[in-house]
């Protein structure tokens, strides 16, 4: 019989194709595992060798005492050893003898000494004396690097091998040390020589010496800053060197150098700081192995955070020294000069506050700058207030604004409301309005550019277009989810911010009504009135009404109260059943107190109140009240500045459109009984229907062209079409916009006044002046006679 056939089926070619990839992967994994195991074994063997070498060196005995034998004894001992019959000894005896020879008690002991080997108690003093005889300092050995080689293996076991190589110091370190040592040694010598020679200089030489020193410092600062900015990863140690220059000890240039270093470091950190917040690494992250580039980035982040922290601490300490009027031990800067240093420090902190709100220690900067908003020095206070206004205006999310408002609330409470009004007025710059929120969401939403259909057909195949369509749909959904998440976060932050702001305002209204902060509080309430919760409406209206009736408020404060009330009633307060008749009377009374002086700026508040009281609430206003306001506003427009006149006339135009029956004021006929009482402060009972708007005829001769246009437009009934209609440019603008556009605050006239035509006088030529010939001849004869006669003033007349 032939050989038995194997029952195992041969794999087909298709099956081999399927399994070949898996086999290759398994082979690769096995090879990697073998390499790892071999590497582990090698590491373990090297570790054992090192431990064996270390143990062998520790087991070598060191003699406690060394004795120098006489030459006669050495010769006798050598003769004795040679005469010994070594052939009679076994190998075991030889090994035992060598082992005993390695023991210190057998070889190192002085045979001539009388002490026995086992007398351990008596040799304590000898051991101490032996240690005293050993030199205290070991000879300085050259550092050597031990390189372990592959060991030998024979019958006795493994024999380790190693090679010693002396360490060579790095050339770079030696060069740096050589450069640093002469510099360090030269500085004190230069300082001593300069201090001795500086006293002997004349004032001109001192000034020249100061200029030269300052130029050298400037050049040094510029060199360091440019090196840091060009390569931040490798030159972070230069930042420490620049910070060291903030402690300049030369009195003649100390203040200038410190200021320049502060400003330069601020610009450097603005340039090299990353656009994200750096968090500290966890213990697990520190222990994990990373790439070389990642490790370098981590070291850079750690160094920039530490240097930035030290820099902020230096700025804060400078401000504290100025506030406490301390003088440093170096005595390089006087107490008077600390004010300039503190101002530069505040300016640097304000710059970092605005340009790096995303980076670390931003809240620490806020805590440092908020108390300086209430500083007695106006320059410092204005710098901080302006910085926070810009921060509020540029803050699109609301995190920095919330942190600032919290610190301001704590400051006001800690100082018992005795702060400057400018601190509260900065809160007016907060961007907490629904319209601005939508704009911010559009600006902060991530923008993704998708391909057009034309580009898809041109560059993609049919299958690729299908995949691209699905991918773009998914990306749009993700972008919408991100936008909704950011909107919820923003609304949450704004709600918390508003709660703190209203808490500040209500505390002041309750506890400090006669404080200087009341105008700022009323202005803030008028600004954020549309966001106040309905629960506070009744109590707030009662408080504002009591404030107005007390008579302690100025015109501007009263106008803010009225604006707050009607802003509430025109918004969420529509559901409240409140008759604000008293507030109408208060505004009607205040109108006659305004004029072209300082109160001219209060007209803008009046225009806001009129919009909320007459235009938006036209269904709740009677015709008598509307006509009374129209007449008094026309009278007010005669004695205010041109921009206020334009704004008031624009408000009258809106009132006439809201109440068309007010056109009876354009006729001279009397409507009903009685006559107009101009001085009565009740708008409902002044009989305004029995008067006419004669002020419009006077305003038609106003020096401002826009005032003339509005007066002519209103005198014809404010038509929307026809020859008497206003231009589209004026119709589309609100009274507030017109008030701002035609403002004369900067001593500018809008529209600009045309320069008068130059009228140059004709040049008169002698002989062509007179029309009469005879008169012309007589004039010429007189002039010629005057030229011929010679006057002698030295001659004396008798």
UniProtKB/TrEMBL annotation:
<feature type="compositionally biased region" description="Acidic residues">
    <location>
        <begin position="173"/>
        <end position="193"/>
    </location>
</feature>
<dbReference type="Pfam" id="PF03914">
    <property type="entry name" value="CBF"/>
</dbReference>
<dbReference type="GO" id="GO:0006270">
    <property type="term" value="P:DNA replication initiation"/>
</dbReference>
<dbReference type="InterPro" id="IPR011501">
    <property type="entry name" value="Noc3_N"/>
</dbReference>
<keyword id="KW-0175">Coiled coil</keyword>
<feature type="coiled-coil region">
    <location>
        <begin position="283"/>
        <end position="332"/>
    </location>
</feature>
<feature type="compositionally biased region" description="Basic residues">
    <location>
        <begin position="40"/>
        <end position="51"/>
    </location>
</feature>
<dbReference type="InterPro" id="IPR016903">
    <property type="entry name" value="Nucleolar_cplx-assoc_3"/>
</dbReference>
<dbReference type="InterPro" id="IPR016024">
    <property type="entry name" value="ARM-type_fold"/>
</dbReference>
<feature type="region of interest" description="Disordered">
    <location>
        <begin position="160"/>
        <end position="205"/>
    </location>
</feature>
<dbReference type="GO" id="GO:0005730">
    <property type="term" value="C:nucleolus"/>
</dbReference>
<dbReference type="Pfam" id="PF07540">
    <property type="entry name" value="NOC3p"/>
</dbReference>
<feature type="region of interest" description="Disordered">
    <location>
        <begin position="27"/>
        <end position="88"/>
    </location>
</feature>
<keyword id="KW-0539">Nucleus</keyword>
<feature type="domain" description="CCAAT-binding factor">
    <location>
        <begin position="558"/>
        <end position="711"/>
    </location>
</feature>
<dbReference type="GO" id="GO:0007517">
    <property type="term" value="P:muscle organ development"/>
</dbReference>
<feature type="domain" description="Nucleolar complex-associated protein 3 N-terminal">
    <location>
        <begin position="217"/>
        <end position="311"/>
    </location>
</feature>
<dbReference type="GO" id="GO:0019216">
    <property type="term" value="P:regulation of lipid metabolic process"/>
</dbReference>
<feature type="compositionally biased region" description="Basic and acidic residues">
    <location>
        <begin position="160"/>
        <end position="172"/>
    </location>
</feature>
<dbReference type="InterPro" id="IPR005612">
    <property type="entry name" value="CCAAT-binding_factor"/>
</dbReference>
<feature type="compositionally biased region" description="Basic and acidic residues">
    <location>
        <begin position="27"/>
        <end position="39"/>
    </location>
</feature>
<feature type="region of interest" description="Disordered">
    <location>
        <begin position="446"/>
        <end position="466"/>
    </location>
</feature>
<comment type="similarity">
    <text>Belongs to the CBF/MAK21 family.</text>
</comment>
<dbReference type="GO" id="GO:0003682">
    <property type="term" value="F:chromatin binding"/>
</dbReference>
<protein>
    <recommendedName>
        <fullName>Nucleolar complex protein 3 homolog</fullName>
    </recommendedName>
</protein>
């Amino acid at each position: 019989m032939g050989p038995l056939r194997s029952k195992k089926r041969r794999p087909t070619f298709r099956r081999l194709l399927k399994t070949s990839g898996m086999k290759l992967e398994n082979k690769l994994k096995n090879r990697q595992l073998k390499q790892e195991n071999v590497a582990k074994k090698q590491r373990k063997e090297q570790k054992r060798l090192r431990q064996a070498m270390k143990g062998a060196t520790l087991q070598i005995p060191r003699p406690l005492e060394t004795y120098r034998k006489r030459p006669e004894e050495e010769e006798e001992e050598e003769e004795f050893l040679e005469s010994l019959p070594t052939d009679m000894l076994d190998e075991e005896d030889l090994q035992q003898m060598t082992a005993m020879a390695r023991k210190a008690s057998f070889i190192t002991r002085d045979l001539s000494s009388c002490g026995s080997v086992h007398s351990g108690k008596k040799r304590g003093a000898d051991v101490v004396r032996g240690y005293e005889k050993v030199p205290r300092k070991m000879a300085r050995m050259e550092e050597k690097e031990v390189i372990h080689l592959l060991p030998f293996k024979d019958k006795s076991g493994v024999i380790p091998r190693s090679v010693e190589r002396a360490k060579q110091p790095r050339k770079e370190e030696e060069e740096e040390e050589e450069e640093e040592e002469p510099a360090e040694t030269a500085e004190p010598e230069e300082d001593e020589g300069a201090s001795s020679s500086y006293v002997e200089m004349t004032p001109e030489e001192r000034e020249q010496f100061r200029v030269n020193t300052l130029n050298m410092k400037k050049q040094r600062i510029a060199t360091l800053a440019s090196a840091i900015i060009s390569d931040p990863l490798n030159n972070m140690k230069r930042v420490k060197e620049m910070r060291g220059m903030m402690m300049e000890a030369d009195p003649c240039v100390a203040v200038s150098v410190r200021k320049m270093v502060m400003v330069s470091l601020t610009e450097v950190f603005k340039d090299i700081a990353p656009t994200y917040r750096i968090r500290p690494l966890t213990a697990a992250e520190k222990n994990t192995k990373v790439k070389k580039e990642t490790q370098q980035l981590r070291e850079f982040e750690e160094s920039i955070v530490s240097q930035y922290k030290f820099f902020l601490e230096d700025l804060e300490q400078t401000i504290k020294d100025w506030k406490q009027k301390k003088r440093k031990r170096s005595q390089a800067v006087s107490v008077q000069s600390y004010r300039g240093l503190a101002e530069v420090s505040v300016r640097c902190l304000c710059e970092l506050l605005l340009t790096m709100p995303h980076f670390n220690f931003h809240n620490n900067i806020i805590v440092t700058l908020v108390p300086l908003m209430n500083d007695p020095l106006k320059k410092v206070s204005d710098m901080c207030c302006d910085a926070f206004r810009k921060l509020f205006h540029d803050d699109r999310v609301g995190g920095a604004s919330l942190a600032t408002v919290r610190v301001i609330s704590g400051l006001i409470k800690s100082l018992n409301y005795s702060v400057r009004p400018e601190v509260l007025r900065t809160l007016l710059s907060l961007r907490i309005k629904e319209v601005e929120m939508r704009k911010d969401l559009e600006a902060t939403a991530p923008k993704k550019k998708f391909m057009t259909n034309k580009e898809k057909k041109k560059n993609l195949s049919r299958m690729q277009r299908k995949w691209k369509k699905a991918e773009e749909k998914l990306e749009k959904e993700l972008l919408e989810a991100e936008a909704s998440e950011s909107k919820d976060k923003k609304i949450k932050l704004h709600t918390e911010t508003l709660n703190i702001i209203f808490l500040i305002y209500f505390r002041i209204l309750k506890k400090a009504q006669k404080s200087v902060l009341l105008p700022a509080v009323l202005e803030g309430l008028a600004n954020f009135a549309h966001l106040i919760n309905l629960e506070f409406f009744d109590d707030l209206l009662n408080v504002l009404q009591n404030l107005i009736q007390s008579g302690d408020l100025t015109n501007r404060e009263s106008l803010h109260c009225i604006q707050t009330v009607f802003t509430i009633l025109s918004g969420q307060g529509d559901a409240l059943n409140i008759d604000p008749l008293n507030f109408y009377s208060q505004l009607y009374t205040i109108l006659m107190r305004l004029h072209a002086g300082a109160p001219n700026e209060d007209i803008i508040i009046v225009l806001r109140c009129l919009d909320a009281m007459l235009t938006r609430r036209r269904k709740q206003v009677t015709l008598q009240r509307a006509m009374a306001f129209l007449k008094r506003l026309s009278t007010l427009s005669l004695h205010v500045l041109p921009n206020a006149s334009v704004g008031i006339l624009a408000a009258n135009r809106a009132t006439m459109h809201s109440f068309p029956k007010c056109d009876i004021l354009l006729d001279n006929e009397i409507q009903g009984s009685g006559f107009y009482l101009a001085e009565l402060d009740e708008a409902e009972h002044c009989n305004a229907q029995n008067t006419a708007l004669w002020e419009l005829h006077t305003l038609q001769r106003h020096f401002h062209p826009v005032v003339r246009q509005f007066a002519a437009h209103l005198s014809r009934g404010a038509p929307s079409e026809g020859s008497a209609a206003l231009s589209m440019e004026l119709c589309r603008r609100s009274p507030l916009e017109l008030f701002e556009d035609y403002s004369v605050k900067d001593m500018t006239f809008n529209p600009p006044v045309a320069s008068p035509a130059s009228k140059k006088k004709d040049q008169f030529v002698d002989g062509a002046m007179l029309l009469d010939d005879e008169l012309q001849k007589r004039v010429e004869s007189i002039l010629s006679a005057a030229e011929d006669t010679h006057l002698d003033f030295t001659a004396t007349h008798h």
